[in-house]
Amino acid sequence: MIVIFFLGILHLSHTDPILPKKSGGDYPDANKVMEKLPQTYMLQSLGNFTNIICGYQEFYTSTKGEKTFRMYDF
């Protein structure tokens, strides 16, 4: 009886009906996220300027010590 109980637990641990492997989950493709980042920054920047007619965003790298940062100006 105990052996059947443990075999049942092992079987349930291998089959996870709540999170199927082919669902994709909540994790988007990293390449698609990196492509959309400039658009996201632009939308956030435009939110701070409600009366703007035209604008552009400049991306650059900044180095502080040994670390390199990606920066942007609007």
Automatic annotation (TrEMBL):
Question: In its UniProt entry, what is this protein called?
Answer: Putative lipocalin
Origin organism is Ixodes ricinus
Q: Where is the signal peptide?
A: 1-15
Task: Give the record's keywords alphabetically.
Answer: Signal
Give the source's domain of life in one word.
Eukaryota
